[in-house]
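REQUEST FORM: STRUCTURE PREDICTION
Request ID: SP-0412
Submitted by: Lab K.M.
Chain count: 1
Length (residues): 92
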Amino acid sequence: MIGKGAATAAKYGKSVAGFIGRNGAAIQRGVTITKDLVTTGTTVAQLAGIMHHDTKSKIDKIADAIHRQVHSLGPKAKKKQVRFKTGAQILV
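STATUS: Completed
RESULT:
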C-alpha cells in the first residue's frame, strides 16, 4: 500500500516538475505581474484610507517573498567558460 502511494506521488511529482520546466518563464512572468498588482492595490487601499500602513507592509512583504522564491528556482544563467590553449604565451 505504501509503495503504491509512493509510486503515485513520484508520478505526479514528475508531471509537475515537467510542467514547471516547460512553463517556468511564463510562471515567473505571472508572479511578477501579480506582485506588481498586489503592490499597486495595497498602495491604493492605503491612500484611500481603507488599509493601515502596517497591513500594507505585511502584504507587500509576502508578495515580495513569493516573488523572490519563484525567481530563485528559475533557470540559472549559464556561466561562460574561458579556456586557454596549452602553451599559449602572455606578453607583458
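NOTES: The chain is about 75% helix and 0% strand.
Reviewed by: T.R.
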